[in-house]
Structures are given as structure tokens and as C-alpha cells.
Design a protein that fits this description.
Elements: H1 14-36, H2 43-50, H3 54-61, H4 64-94, H5 100-117, H6 120-133, H7 139-161, H8 167-172
Helix pairs in contact: 1-2, 1-4, 1-6, 3-4, 4-5, 4-7, 5-7, 6-7
Amino acid sequence: MATGLQSKAAGKTRAQKSFETSERILDVAEAEFSRHGFDGVTLRAVAKKAKVDTALLHYYFDSKKGLFDAVFLRRAEVLNKDRMEALDRYEAEAGDNITVEGAVAAFLNPVLERCANAGPEWRAYFALIGVVNNTPVWGGETMTRYFDPVIHRLIRVVRRALPYAREEDLFWS
């Protein structure tokens, strides 16, 4: 006998169904934002393609900006974790022999591996990063918000290879 939280037909809990619905919305929104940019996407179009009511998007994400932020954050967290781990491994393996090339490779390899081996969802995400980087009004702020911690980590590692470099040179090179 199914509990009040369990769907008899699907055998899934409400939480599972909610998660799956949210992920489906995020997948559709990610594809739409990567193709059309923020201004070219409507909540109505996302809802239609995700086969949900527009009110559900407002329930989960509050607004189009909230949906966009959730789309961006979902994969940024994974990518940042991969990059941080790669930088940690590189530092542990290199010891006192840190090089700029090694640090940059550790930073970029997780992205390159995702590009080469991941499915269409990651390709859409990388296209979205390209869209955001080319959005002059808020693109820089978005990239800063989601990627600054890992950029600062990279700078700290590069600093070990170039201890006498000026801070501004490290950030702009």
C-alpha cells in the first residue's frame, strides 16, 4: 500500500517526481537560453517544451532570472568542484615544482574533458557560457558570481610559480 507521499502508478515519491520535473525544466531552459540568450526566452516557451504549467516555473524558480540562475548554478557547481579537485591534485603532485603551464592545464582539463566526453546537456551549458560572456550588461557579473572562487584558486596556484609577479598581472594574464 502506497503512502500519501508515494504515487501508486509510478512508484515514485512526490520528492522524486518533483526533482525529475525540476530537472526537466532546467534541461529545457538550459537548451533555450543557450540558443536564444536570456532575452530571447520566455517562461511560457520553457513551460510548453517542458510540458508543465507556467505557474510551476514560478513555484520552483520565482522568475525568469531565478530560472536562469538555477540553470547556470547547476553545472557551475559541478565544473567548479572538478576544477578545484584538479588544482588540488596538481599541487599535491607538483609539490614545490608548480609551473604556470601545469596550473593552467589543471584548470582547463576538466572543461576540455567535459567538452570531449559529455552529452548534449554539457554542450548546451558551454554554449550558454559563451552567450553570457558576450552579454555586456550583466555577463561579467554572472561569470564573476559563479566562477570567481575557482579563478581565485587558480591565481593562488599560479602565484606559487610566479611569486614576484604583480597581482594585477596575474589577474589579467
